[in-house]
Amino acid sequence: MIVLPSMGPLHLTQPRYNAVSVLRQVASLRPERVFLASYSPEGMERGVWRDQNDLALFLFVPWATDAGVGIRAIGEDSEALQSEAEHFLEYLNSMPRGERYKERLHEADRAIVEYLTVPRMPEDYASSGFIEGLRQRQAVITDMAGEGPATGFRERRMDDAASRLLAEADEDAVVIVDILDYPALLSRLGDVRGPAALEPDEAERARAVMDRAWRLQEDDEWGGLVEQLMEIPDAEAAFLVAQIYLAAGQLSDATAVMEGVARDDFSRPEYLPGYVLARLGQLYDLSGRREEALRAYRGVLALSWAPEETREIAAAGMRSPFRSGPAG
């Protein structure tokens, strides 16, 4: 059995284990179906992975549909168990010293995030050293919170997922699991394989460049990043060029590039339409083109799904024209 961890939004920090890397791992195995251990069938039907910003699934789900690869979500009650944990943390706020306790949990969470944002090779995630390091950091939270709703939901949902895998999956089965569920699932499955060493290809390199642009910092070499993005024949890359132009105050250049994106197919990844239309609305507002801005904002709100950030941008833009620097 091959178990591949999905890092959600943290894939942005991993040039060699980004969303394309996960897809390449799956595609290289040529499975007939893939098991998703951290989502329930109902959660997949509702598309909860979109709102959790599970970047690997934004590429995997359409690929599987196009390739005729079945998707089997086996995490029964996954979302309900996670919601129970979140409600428990909210309850802490009403308790004496609850805020301090919650802050300690957040500190432990930050230690996990710091550990997971260290750049690694795909095969590193299969190493006992990495798995044990993650397990130890998670144990800090368990020691503070106990085996209650704040932590036990991962154990409970991986109990169920492992039982289903052992009953339904063969030795060549492919499983994708949330990185924070990964150690718990591995401990229940015994001898399984993790991500394998793969040489990077152009798609993986392009994804790494785009991920870096999503994380744009003031001390980055913006000109060099724009040059790299312009070499990628992809609507998302062009959108990111416009983002950098906007951040640099080059309004006319940003608008021209974004309008070019909007004239072509920008339907994938599924988060892109919301961002393109929201930013286009802001660019039109900055240029005094209010009616065009309103059309763009309405376009965001008319989408069957869009990232919450883009819906907030559109709603704010509908109320009043955007007048400051780039939001979100």
Which key features would you list for this structure?
328 residues; mainly alpha; Serine Threonine Protein Phosphatase 5, Tetratricopeptide repeat; 2 domains; four-stranded parallel sheet
How would you describe the overall organization of this protein?
The chain is mainly α. It is built from 16 helices and 4 strands. The radius of gyration is 21 Å and the shape is globular. The protein starts with a strand and ends in a 9-residue tail after the last helix. The relative contact order is 0.12.
Mean pLDDT: 91
Category from helices, strands and their pairing: mainly alpha
**What strand order characterises the main sheet?**
1-4-2-3
Shape: globular
How many E strands? 4
Quaternary organization: single chain
Percent in strands: 5-15%
How do the helices and strands follow one another from N- to C-terminus?
EHEHHHEHHHHEHHHHHHHH
Q: Tell me the radius of gyration.
A: 21 Å
Give the N-to-C terminal Cα separation: 40 Å
What is the count of structural domains?
A: 2
**Largest sheet composition:** 4 strands, parallel
Low-confidence stretches: none
Helix content: 55-70%
What count of helical segments does DSSP give? 16
